[in-house]
Amino acid sequence: MNCVHVLDCTLRDGGYCNQWKFGSDNIKKIITGLVDAGIDIIECGFLTEKVRYNTDVTKFTDTDKITPFLPEEKAGRIFVAMMNYGEYDVSALPECKDVLLDGIRVAFHKKELHAALEDCRKIKEKGYKVFVQAMVSLSYSDEEFLSLIREVNEIEPYAFYIVDSFGMMKKKNLIRLFYMVEHNLKESIWIGFHSHNNMQLAYSNAQALVDIQTNRKLIIDSSVYGMGRGAGNLNTELFVEYLNENAGGKYRLNPLLNIIDEILNDFYQRSYWGYSLPNYLSAAHNAHPSYASYLDDKRTLTVKEMNQIFDMIDSEKKFTFDRQYAEELYLKFMSKHKHGTAHKDELTKKIQGKKVLLIAPGKNAEREKEKIVSYIGNKDVVSVSVNFDYLPAETDFIFLSNLRRFRELEEGKREKCIVTSNIPSDVNYLQTEYSELINSVDAVSDNAGLMAIKFFASLGAEEILLAGFDGYSYEANQNYVEDKMLYIPHESRIDAINEGMCRVLREYSQKISIRFVTPSKYTSSVFG
User: Which CATH number is 3-270 given?
Assistant: First the structure.
């Protein structure tokens, strides 16, 4: 029977979903629950010098900060922390015999290989169990991977990992790499496997490894409820049940279910993780998952368009997320269509000396519809709905920067649309350059409402009236006048959007008169 150990990484990999803010009580409860469940190896979080320590966060600045969360009686469990190469001075590590932590996992990119392995050697000399985590295993050629194994053999760490960083590894890839490791790695070294679930393959790949007839000792990583960045990880509760039924496992499920019910469900509701088409695309393109979340957060792209942007990513840029590079690609893509200005002079004359009423799709666009409709009927007001068709009354124009919303619009209404250059359309009133309307605040750089303000201000509007610019709420169903627009961003992103809107609105209000005609979270911040 294969010897399989489970390493749970909820407190480390799961931290990408909540900025590692589990809370000190929850950290203790999760560790206790994992011990009670019989999990063999428990990862407590990151060891890093890049943060200021917070007792509620599973990023630890030294090993002493981890000790209060560990049980005095380990019950045969191994407790580890992960270190990203370059984020911690290993010479500062105390001797393992002086601390409760048993092991260190060292994660590194291919370009850092030699220096990272030297750190692994030093950590082992201090008595720790060392886990070598060479990220993105499929980025190595066969010869490079064999060379890596030979160098690992010289160090003889506790474990060497096959790492599916982007969740794109098929069974045939995994088995091929496993046999390379099995035939070339020293027998004393455990073989580990860390996966992500971008293609829904984490569970089946883990089963495939367990089912291989081998005498090698295996470690399979998982997290409770699959908690992890993007598509998440192999589910601990599912995998240990499989081991119990098929590989002689004696794990207990109830403590894991309690962790889900009492702790993780709340995080899941606030910050969803799991399979999604953007995460699938990142795996299909063998690209860092943060590209997927970055593009998805824009809320302006169809899946087909996201795929086209992934096609544009340079192969050398795929393995490490570069936010500035991603923004450059995004803006290049969004500006690819020619913009037409045939009606620009006509529109400029139409709004001279008039107020422009911009109606965003916040809930107050419906609640305050009588007030809004009275403005629409005013001859001194040019009315414009933003990224949706305002049903209570016919607006003069519709401003659109979102291709999805444009496609949802009745074809008969497209002739009054002012669209940005990312929207491929031959039927519209006017098409304007997308990149000219963005602002410098990242969270709202291409917010449609702010783009519309900038556009009409540039044409000489006398005053901008804002309706339905409610501000974002943590309660997702309170954010949009139409349910089909429902979008559930992370709470941290909601805060960033609201702060960004206030900042840019204040900036724009210095250049043109802006007035809210319906209630808004932004009113006091902008004009108070």
Answer: 3.20.20.70
